[in-house]
Structures
1.
Amino acid sequence: MPEPRSARRRPPSRRAVLTAATAGLATVLVSTLTGCSAADGGTSQGVTLTFSWWGNDNRAERTDEAVRLFEKEHPGVTVRTSNSDFGSYLQKLATQAAGGGMPDVAQLDYRQISRYAGSGALMPLGEAIGNKTIRTDEIDQQFLRTGSYEGGQYALPMGRGITGYAYDSALYAKAGVPTPQPSWTWQDWENANKKIAALGLKSPDGRPVTGANDGGGNQDVFETWLRSRGGQLYASQTRLGFTEDDLAEFWAFCDRLRREGAIAAAEDTTQANSTETSPIGRGLAAADFTWDAPFPGYAKLLGESTHFAPVPSTNGRAGSYFKPSMLVGISANTKHPKEAAQLIDFLLNDPRAGDILGFTRSTPPNRVIAANVSKTLKGPELEIYQYAQTMEKYGLAAPPTAPPPGDLPINTAFKRNYQRVMFGLATPRQAARELIEEANRELRS
Amino acid sequence: MNIATKRWMPHTIALVGLLVLLYPLAWLLATSLKPADEVVTSLDLWPSYLEWSNYTTALEGVSGVSVTRLLSNTLLIAVGCVIGNVLSCSLAAYAFARLRFRMRKAMFAFMVATLMLPHHVVLIPQYIIFNRLGLVDTYWPLILPKFLATEAFFVFLIVQFMRGLPRELEESARIDGCGPFRTYWAITLPLSRPALITTAIFTFIWSWNDFFTQMIYLFAPENFTITLALSNFVDQSSTSAYGPMFAMSVISVLPIVLFFFVFQRYLVQGVATSGLKG
Amino acid sequence: MRTLSTKAPESADGTTGPRAPSRRRRPVREKQWPAYVFLSPWMIGAGVVTLLPMAVSLYLSFTDYNLFDAPNWVGLRNYAEMLFEDPRYWRSVGTTLLYVLVAVPLKLILALGAAMLLKNLNRGRGFYRSAFYAPSLLGASMSIALVWRALFNDGGTVPDVLAALGIDTGGWVGNPHLAVYTVVLLTVWQFGAPMVIFLAGLQQISPDLYEAAALDGAGPWRQFVAVTVPMLSPVVFFNLVLEIINSFQVFTPAFAVSSGDGGPADSTLFYTLFLYERGFTASHMGYAAAMAWLLLLAVGVITLILFRTSRSWVFYADEEGR
C-alpha cells in the first residue's frame, strides 16, 4: 500500500493509533494461544458439563441415554453432549483446545494422547483415581497404561479393540485352506491368497477374485507384522522402532503378492473409503484386515459365511495387542473437575451404564461389565468377544505406551508412500527411505 | 438450414446438454430410493422398487434431533446471514461508490485484496476471538461477521452496481437538502434492488451449503444444521447406511432448490443490471 | 495494489496531490464523517474479523506454533523448509497450477457457450436458466461430493459409459493419473455463476451493433469475433479474475473427492488441502500460516498481472470521462 506523501494535519496519525491498537490486541490473542486457567472445585449446584465424542447414531443414542441417567443420579448437574464424525472431530477438538474452548470431558483417540497430555491440555487423573472418584480396579493394569504419558495418567480407555482378519469361510473351504488358527503364519497367509486366486472365480462385475485386500498401506497391519517379529513402531516419543530394511521388506512382500494377482489390485484399494467400496465389499477379495468392533458390520454386509480370524503370526508369535479403541479425558480448563471425574467413572464402571452402552465402543475395559454384557451377545458380536478371549489365552505382548504426537501425520504418510509403490512411482526401498525421512522430521519437531 | 431446424436446434442442444448435466442429480434422487443391497452393487440407475423407508429413517433425524429442527436451525442461520450481508455490504458499498474520505483508495484496495484470503489462515485467531467473547456454540460466529461486511465479494458487487446508477437523482436529492443517509435509504437502496437480491440469493445458498464454519463453532446437537447432521451420517468408523444417507442428502438440498426456483428470475436480472463490468 | 484501486469509483479524484484541493470545482468540501458512519460495520469487520487474525497468522508463520504449546519464534525456517526442503510443497503447487490451467478455461468456455445458447432461447427461458444453474446451486454441498465419488469409482457410471465406448479407464478416484480430473470436472460442472454473468453481459450488447455488422456482410462467426468478444471482454475479465482467485483456493471438491488426504499418492493434493493437512492433521500451524501467506502473495501478484495486461485486451465502452 502506498505511503502517505506528506504529513498533513494531526501529528499522531490515525494509522499509527490503529497499528498500535492492532498490535496490542494481537498480543492479547497470541498470549492466549496456549491459554490455561486454573481450575477450581465447587459444589454440584447448577453445574453444566460439556462432553463430546465421535461416532455414529447408535452410539449417540445410547451415550445420550447413559448421560441422562447420570444427570438423574446427580441433581444439579447438566451434561451437554455433542458428537461428530471422526475426521471432523479431530480437527474440531484441536481448534477448541487451541482456542481454550475444549469440552470438559472429551473422547480421545490413542494418537491424540501424547499431544494433549504433553501440552497440558488434559488434567492429570492421578488424584481422582487416588481418591476413588474414578475406580480402576476392574481394568487391566497394563491396558490402563495406554492412557498414560510420561508416568502420569491423563486418560482412561473406554473400549478395548484388537486387530483381526475378516474372511469368507466358504471361499477358504472351497480353496482347501484350513481355518486360520492363532499360530498361522504370514507364509500360510501368502499360500492361502494364492490358492484362492487360483480358483479363477469372478466378481459380480466380471473381474478376478483375489485372496485379500492389500494391507500394505495400512499402518496397523504393518505394526502387527512388525510386532510378530519382535519389533515395534516407536522406540520412544522421538524415535522410530523400525528400520528402512524392515519397511522395505514388508512393502516388497505386499507388492509382490499384488503383482502376482494374489491380493487386490491397486485402484481397487485406493478408491475404497468404506467397507462397501473396498475390494472385499465389492466381491473382489475374500478377506480383509480389520478391527474387532467393525467386524459385525462386515458380517451383516457380506453374509453368514464371514468369520473373524487372527492376523497371521511369525513362527507362532502373534503381533496383535489390546489397543484402546478410544479413551476419555478431562480438559485442564474444566471448572468442574469433580463432576467430570464422576461422569467418567459412571460411564466406565456403573453396571446400568454398562448395560445401556453395551459394545458401542468395543469391549468395555471394566472386566465385570464386559462379562456381564457379553451374556446378551450372539452371532458376530459373540464371535468377536470369544476371539478376544482366545487371543488373551494364546498370549499377547503388552501394549505399547501412547504413540508420539507425530503419529497422525506419519500414519497418512505411510498410506501415501505405499500408494506410490502400488502405482510404480517408487520402489519399496525408495518409498521406505522417504517414509523414514518424513517420519523423522515429524518426530523431531 | 430451414427455419424449423433453426428454431429447434438450440433447444435440442440445450436438452442434450441438460441430460448430461443433470444426470448426477438424477442419480442422487434414484439412489435415495434404492434398497440397501442395490446401492453399491446394482449398476441400474433406477431402483428395482422404491424403498421409501430410506426417507422415514432419514426423517427421524440424527442424535435425537428431528429433521424439522435441523432445517429450521439452518434456515435461521441463512436468514440471519442474508439480512446481515444485505445491510452491511450495501452500507459499505455506498460509501465506496458515492462518498469521499481519506484513504479511500487504500481501503478499497484492501477490501478487494481480502477476496484472495484463504480462510484457513484466519480460522484459529477467529476462533480464539469468538471463544473469548463466549460466543462459541451459538450462531453468532456464523452470523455476526455478515453484519460486519466481511464478505468482500458482495461489497465489490454492490459497489460495481452503484457505480452504474445515474447520479442525477442523487444530485437532485442533495439539492433538495437530503443528507447522505436519506439519500442512501430513499434513493440508492431502492435503485440497487437487483444487486441486493443477487447478494441475498448467493448468501442464502452459500450459508446453507457451508460446512466448515458450522463444524468448528457448533457444539450441541440441538444447534446442529442439516449439513452437520449429514456428515454424522457419513461417519466412516461405523457401518454406513447408504440409502438413508442419500435420502438425507436429498432432504438437505431440497430447500435451496425451492428457494432458487422461486427467486431465479431476479438473479439474472440482478446480475444483468448490476453492470458487472470489471 | 495501485492498479486494483484504479478500478475504484472515480479514481481520478483519489490521486490528488497537495495542490489538488484548490483545483476542485466543488466549492464546499464534503464532510467526511458520514462516510465513516457508513463504513463503520465494514471497518470493525475488517479490523477484528480480518486484519487482526491476519496479523496473528503472519506472526505465527514465523513460529513453530503447533496449536497446543506456546509459539516459539523460528524466523524464516517455515518458509525455507517449504521452498527448499519439502518435495510435497512443490507437488501441491504443481497440482494446483495444473488444475487452474485446465479447470478455469474449460469452465469459462462452457459458461460462455451455455450463455450464448440460452440467449437465443425465448421459450422456456426460466426453465433452462434454472436447470443449467442447478449444478452450481448444489455442487458445493456434501451430498454431491458423495455422488461424485460414486459416479467416478470403478463400477460407477462414468468408467462404465467410457468402457462401452471402447475406452477402458477403470475407476478414476483410485487412479493417481485420473483422480485430479474428477475434481476438475466437479468444478467445471458448476459453471452456472459465470454463465449467469456472461448472460447478463450478452444482454447488454446493443442489437444495433449486430445489425450493423450483419449489414457489412459479417457471418455469425465474424459477428462473434468482431462484436461479441470485444463487447464482452470486461465480463470475461471479471469472470477470469474471480475464477482464478477461487481456483487457487479450491478446497471443498478436492477434500470431498479424496476423502481429505489428497490421495491417491498425493495426486489431488491441492495447495489448500496440503495447508489444511499441515495445520490441522499434523499440527504444524506455523508452517500452514506461512503457506497461506505465500498463497496470498502469489494470488495477489497474478491478479496484479491480470489487471496490468487487461488494458491491452479489455474494452470498456463507457470509458470516456474515467
2.
Amino acid sequence: MAKKQPTAEDLAAELDQKSAEIRILQRVSSAINATLDLEEIYGIVLGTMDEIFGFHHSLILLLDESGETLTVVASRGYEGQTLGGQVRVGTGLIGVVAKKRRLMRLSNLGSQRGYIAAIRKQMEEAGRSGELEEAAPVPGLPNVESQIGIPLLIKDNLIGVFSVESAEQKMFSDREETLVAIVANQAASAIHNARLYRAEEQRRQELAELNETLEDRVRARTAELERANRELRDMQTQLVQTEKMASLGMLVAGVAHEINTPIGAIAANTDLVRRATEIVRQRIEDKGSLAELAGDSRLRQAVETLRQASQTEQLACERVTSIVKSLRNFARLDESEEKLVDLHEGIESTLTLLRHELKKGVEVVKHYGDLPQVLCFPSQLNQVFMNLLNNAISATGGKGTITITTARDGDGVVLRFADTGGGISPQNLKRIFDPGFTTKGVGVGTGLGLSICYRIIQHHQGTIEVSSEVDKGTEFTLRLPIQPH
Amino acid sequence: MGEVRLPDEIRPVMENGIPAQVGTCSADGTPNATDISRVYYVDSEHLALSNQFFSKTIRNIRENPRACVNLNDLEAFTCWVVHLEFDRSETDGPIFDAMDMQIEAIASMTGMSNVFKLKAADIYRVTSVEKIEYGPAS
Amino acid sequence: MIPEEIVTFLEGATVGFAATRDAHLVPHIHFVAGWIVGDDRKTITCFFPPNYSKVLMPSLQDNGQFALTVLGSTSGPKASKPPRPDVDFHECYQFKGDYATSRLANAADAAVVERKGESFRKLFVPLFGFSEEACAARFKKPALAMTFPVRDIFDQTPGPGAGRRVET
C-alpha cells in the first residue's frame, strides 16, 4: 500500500512546530543555566515539562552517596507527598534506568504489570512464593501507563534520573522523547553546577564560622598553654631545687674542710688551755704572795699562752660564723620571695663557700662597680653565681684567674664572670644552655646547671650570654633589670 | 527472494503495549497459538520476541523456524500480519540489553525479578508483512 | 469432554484467536470473535469476522489442524476470590483439534459475538484505553462459523503451570 505523501502545508506546519520547539528549548536552556539555585532549576525544568510540553507528571531524583538509592528532590503534578520518596537502583523503570544508565520509554504499563501480577498469583498458588520478592512501591503515579526515564549523567557519572509519566494510554512519541531528553541533559549539567556551587558555598560558610570562633579557640588555647606553662614552671622550680641541692652536695666537702680548720685549731687549743690553766692553778697555790707570782716567769708564760689561745679561738669562731653565714646567705631558704638585695653580697658569700676550691691556686680579681640593690629572688641568683664560679674553677683546673666585673647599665646591671681556662669549642658553645648538655663526664655534673641558670635569668627578665675562645678562656655576661616588670 | 522491509508505521504498533498473537507449527504439523505482551523492533528487516515462558513456541521454532505474528492497532481498525523466520538467539548485545531492561523494569516493580528474567532475545527475519484494515463498525 | 469449569470459563472469556498452518507448515493467526461449546461438550464452534483471512479455509481444507486460544477473565477456575480484575483476565487455555464443519454464521452466532464484544469493551476500554468504536469494529456481525472436536486442552495461563495438558 502506498504511503500517503505529506503536503506542502504539512511540511510547513511541521517546520513551524520544530522551530517553535527549538526556540523553547533555547529559552529553557538559558533560564536553567542562568541560575545556581537548585530549587529554581527544578522549578524551571518541571514547569517547562508541564506548561509548555504538556507532561503534567514529572520527577527529578538524585542518586544518594551510597549509589544504591535515588531520592525524589522535586516533583510536579502528584497528589500527596512524593518529595523524599525513594527508589532502589534496579527497581522499576526509574531504578533500571539508573542501573543501566540508558533512557527507557515504556507504554501500557498497566497491562504489563497486570500480566506479571497474574504470573505472580499463579506462582503463589503453586506454592512458589519463596521465589518472589516483595513488590517495591516506587514514587509516581499509581496508575502510570506511559513513562520516560532519562539518566542524568555528567560525563559517565550518574547523578540522578528524570522521569516523565502519564496515566493516559497514549504512548510518548519519538519527538516527545527527544524534547524530554534535551531538557534532562540541560538539567543534569545545571544541577551538577549548582551542587558544586552549593558545596563551595557551604565550605566558605564553614570557613567563615571557623574564623568567627577562632578568637574563642585562641583564648581557650592560650588558657591551656598558660596552664601547661604553670605546670612547666613548677617542674622547673623543682629542677632548680634539685640542682641547688646537687650544688650544695658538691660544696659540702669543701665547706667541711673550711669548718674543720678552725674547729681543729679550737680542739688543739683545748689541751693547751687545759695545761696552761693547770700551771696557773699550781703556781697560785704554791706561791704565798702576789709579789712571788709576779716574778714567776712560768706563770707569765702560761697566761700568755691562754691569751693567744683565746685569740685563736675567737678567730676560729669568727671563721665558722662567717662560713655558716655564707651558707645561709647562699641558700636564702627563708627568702623565697622577691626582695631588693645587694648582688655583691651574694657573690661574696658564694666565693666564701668556694674558698677551699679557690685557694688551690685560683686568683679572684674583683672589679666591683657601684651597684644599686636589685629586685630578685636572691637564692636563685646565688645559685647562678655558684654555678658560673664553679664552672670557672673547673675550667682553670685549679690554676688561673677569675675576674668578676660588675657595673650598672642604665636600668639594669651587668655582671661578668671571666676565667682564664681552656675555653669552649664553637660546637659545644652552641649547645651550652641545652638541658642535659655537659662536658664534665657522666656522674660529675647534672648537666642541668647552665640550662637552669638560663631559666633563672630569663625568669628575672634578664639575659645570659657566653663568649669563649679555646685556650684563652670563657666569659659569661649576665644582664639583669634593677626592677623587673 | 527480495528482502521484505517493515514499514515505519508498524513501529508504534509494536510498541503500543497491546498483546500480540504468535502462531507457530511443530514439525509434525500441529499449530500453536499464544499471546505475547511485546514484540521488539530490531531493524527494518528483523524483529525480536522475548524468550521467557512460551516453551511450546520455542520448541516449535527450533523444529520449524516459521512463525506468524498479528499486531493489533484497534484505534486504526488495523491488524498487521507479519510472517517471520527464526534467525538467531542472542543472550547479550544491545538488542538483548534493551529488551532485558524493559522486562527488568516491570518485573522489579512486582517483586518478580528472580522469576521474570529474559533468557534470550530471539531474532526473526521478516518474510512478509500484510496490513488488514477492517474499518469501523457499520 | 471439556471439563464443566472450562465450559464456564469459555462462556465468560473475552479474547480468542486461532492458529492454522498451510501445506508448507507456515502458521497463520486468525482473530476469533466468539465461540460456543457444543451440547455434548466435545466440540467448539468458532465465529470469524467478515474479513477473515483468506488462508483460513484453504489451510483447514488442506490439513484440518486447528488451535484455538482463549483468554478469559474472572469466570474461570483460576478466578480469584474475591475477584481481582487486574490479574484475572490472564487465565488462558488452548484447544486443539481437527476441522470438522463450517457454515455461514447466523443470527444466534451474531448474538454470541455481540455478547463477547460487550464483555471485551467492559474489560479493555479501561485497561487499554480503547474507544467504543474501536471495540465495536472488532466484533462485527460474524461471517463464518467453524466447528472442531476438541482433542487436547492445554492450560496456557502465564506462570509455572503454563503448557500443562488438562484432563478431558
